[in-house]
Design a protein that fits this description.
The protein has about 350 residues and is an alpha/beta fold. It is about 25% helix and about 25% strand. The protein contains twelve helices and 16 strands. Helix 9 links the parallel strand 13 and strand 14.
Length: about 350
């Protein structure tokens, strides 16, 4: 079969690899029908994730059809249409019993495209299939569900839930890439007073406002974010600041934007150390959280999607077939130049878009 592999820092290839096989009773083999690329994949290609070895099949976000199951799999069957979660969990260890699947002690956590072969391929082996696969309602399209593999649960759990966003809050989101836009979409579930998005790209700010419902957008080259937020809050600062980029400067900006007693929720994947200025932030009584997504919220988000309470249609800006993976990576790697948010690659068949609700 064909797959996208990591060949060392700065190198990747769409190449032929062996087809996956059942290795454990809880495994399933899934035919990949739709798949996307994550910013974390770009971090891997930069060499920021040393656990990924050359030859590894990349990817952890996909939707597909079950073609084979192990002897202990009971929650999904052959021919089921499924969402493949970015996180696998055994469901039995001390962390899984706390719904902290990202910290699974028995070979789960973030493994796909990391320490085992991932889903940017024609077929993929999914461990702990009963926990890592979610059957899709017939009303939800592949492309709608694809956004629930990673970015929606990540923004919701690590940004909105960990950040304790509540009704009436002013929420500042630094970064209007896919994860930042997902934070806008999921923050709206909690009725904040104002969602403020900060990003240097005017096209992304426009999308944040028009497609996702941001109330205020700020281009740092034009306006001073701290001044704008202070004007919105009578000088207090944001209740919650969400870092959705993954560089030291934006983390420090979030710390600067939040009010005393407020919350900084870090979502971005950092490849370099960020300075924590305890000499200035301790007196503000700040809470700072970060973390790997656990995907405990995926069933809830999937139900909201099926019920029309969550809309994912604005994320995908570019579509390809699987054989176009190298081109898709080029487009996504230069997201600003291509005005790209998420790319979607489909098996060689017509893709189905959701009808407007």
């Amino acid at each position: 079969m064909r797959a996208m592999t990591f060949d060392g820092p700065g190198r990747k290839s769409w190449t032929t690899v062996p087809e996956p096989k059942i290795q454990a009773p809880g495994d399933a083999i899934v035919r990949i029908d739709a798949v996307t690329i994550c910013g974390t994949d770009l971090h891997i290609l930069k060499g920021d994730v040393p656990e990924v070895s050359p030859g590894r099949v990349l990817g952890h976000e996909s939707v597909g059809t079950v073609v084979e199951i192990g002897s202990s799999v009971s929650e999904v069957s052959v021919d089921d249409r499924v969402l493949v979660s970015c996180i696998s969990g055994c469901g039995r260890c001390a962390y899984c019993r706390r719904a902290m699947y990202g910290q699974c002690l028995r070979g789960g956590g973030w493994v796909l495209g990391h320490v085992i072969d991932g889903v940017q391929a024609e077929f993929a082996r999914i461990p702990f299939a009963d926990h890592g696969l979610h059957k899709l309602p017939p009303t939800v399209t592949d492309e709608q569900a694809l956004m629930l593999a990673d970015i929606l649960p990540t923004s919701y759990e690590v940004g909105i839930r960990n950040g304790q966003v509540g009704p009436g809050d002013v929420v500042a989101i630094v970064g209007a890439g896919p994860i930042g836009l997902a934070a806008v979409a999921t923050a709206r579930l909690y009725s904040p007073r104002s969602i403020v998005v900060i990003d240097p790209a005017e096209s992304r700010l426009k999308r944040a406002s028009e497609d996702f419902g941001a109330d205020v957008t700020i281009a740092p080259t034009v306006d001073e974010p701290r001044r704008v937020i202070e004007d919105l809050t009578d000088g207090l600062g944001a209740d919650v600041a969400i870092e959705a980029v993954g560089i030291p400067e934006t983390f420090e900006q979030c710390v600067d934007l939040v009010r005393p007693g407020g919350h900084v929720a870090n979502i971005g994947v950092h490849g370099k150390p960020a300075t924590l200025h305890l000499e200035t932030v301790w007196i503000k009584n700040l809470t700072i959280t970060t973390g790997l997504v656990d995907t405990y919220s995926t069933p809830t988000l999937l139900q909201l999607l099926a019920d029309g309470r969550l809309d994912t249609r604005g994320f995908v800006t570019h579509r390809f077939e699987l054989d176009d993976f190298p081109k898709a990576y080029d487009v996504f790697a230069d997201a600003a130049g291509n005005d790209a948010v998420k790319v979607a690659l489909h098996r060689a068949q017509p893709y189905e878009l959701a009808e407007p609700r």
